[in-house]
Design goal:
The protein has helices spanning 13-22, 70-81, 109-112; strands spanning 2-8, 29-35, 44-46, 49-51, 56-65, 89-95. The protein is α+β, with helices and mostly antiparallel strands and 113 residues long. The longest helix is centred in the C-terminal third of the chain and has 12 residues, at 70-81. The protein has one domain (2-112): Alpha-Beta Plaits.
Length: 113
């Protein structure tokens, strides 16, 4: 089991979610976040508003998947989020020690779905 965390541009969320759906990855948590990377100090225009360069709006996707879905998940995020510009985002893949479905008490691969 793996825990995939992707930090992407806000305007690419719908494209990434569509690509994940195509690859049969359905369980996603989406959070609005702020942060900075290599584009620090660079002003960007977001929905017609100039954002100061210190912290930029991003979206964090958290996706728990069984091992056979890791490649599909990474491919979906890459396909949906990539524009070729600085600030497209990052993907982190972590080992997931345990998953428990609260309703049934199922654990492990079965609990992820």
């Amino acid at each position: 089991m793996k825990y995939v965390i992707a930090v992407i541009q806000p305007d690419r969320v719908d494209q990434v979610l569509a690509k994940l759906e195509e690859k049969e990855v359905h369980l996603v948590t989406v959070t609005n976040v702020v942060g900075r990377g290599r584009q620090k100090g660079v002003s960007e225009v977001y929905r017609g508003h100039v954002e100061a360069g210190s912290l930029l709006r991003k979206v964090k996707l958290e996706i728990a998947v069984n091992d056979e879905f890791v490649g599909k998940t990474i491919d979906a995020v890459m396909e949906g989020a990539s524009t070729g510009n600085v600030g497209d985002g990052k993907i982190f893949v972590l080992d997931l020690e345990q998953c428990i479905r609260v309703r049934t008490g199922e654990t492990g691969n079965v609990a992820i779905g």
